[in-house]
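Hello, quick one for you while I still have it in my head. My current little project is about how a certain protein chain folds up. You're getting the sequence in one-letter code plus the fold written as tokens. Would you mind checking whether the tokens look sensible for this chain? Here's the protein in full, and shout if anything looks odd to you:
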Amino acid sequence: MSPGTGVLLIAPLAAAGLVAALDSDSINGATERVEAWARGWLVRPAASRSTFSKFVLMPPVWAVVRFCDWTDGFSHRGAKNGARVAAALYLLGAWVFVLYAILMLVVMIVIAAVILYVVFKVAVNADPDIRRGYERGRALFGSSARRPPDVIDQVGLRGKRVYSGTNWLSEELEGRVDENGFIYRGTNWLTEERIGRIDEDGNILRGTNWLNEEKVGRIDEEGGIHRGANWFTEERSGRMDDEGNIYKGANWFTEEKRGRAGE
């Protein structure tokens, strides 16, 4: 036991002994006024108390008042009030410790929940099998209302390869978008690397996992391709037509074919 802890444990007893020894009318009167206030506070209507008062203040005040009832039979006024002072200090100290323990438990639960959430998000984004199972579970236990198709399905990009080139004679494979919306760059599975993903809302995210990805653009339901992190800064940079052809340009006057998505 540290010296500080010993002082905290002995201090209420020392205060009680001092009150009893002095048996001062002023000290006794002060403790009895505090007792009267506590009793009056307890009998107030419950509707007039706040949630903080009900669950934080009321338990220790109730315990102190019950102890005061037990000490009413003491004949020595100083001893009676000294015992009440010691009991009040011990009870308040114990209650503060209980509140501290509850707070620490809540903090630990929140930290654990955040860690589990981060681990889950990393696992979902890193492993296509886990993500596929998560999507199935969400579809099974989610709302019974039918969810509209994802943007990636509406524009026909899911599970497609992406080619650059203006026609089939000059085109070459650049990468692919898998069934989960992950974007890979490379000509085959030996050399390809994950560079981003397209989420269900059509947002284009750059990065190798959930921790480092950032939004760089989006594709809308009509196939319009927009560059920018948000609607304040975004600008139309191209489009994808119904046949999978990819065009660069802000409008059909300036656009030119740059590639396609297909098998």
Summary: Residues 64 and 88 are 6 Å apart (CA to CA).
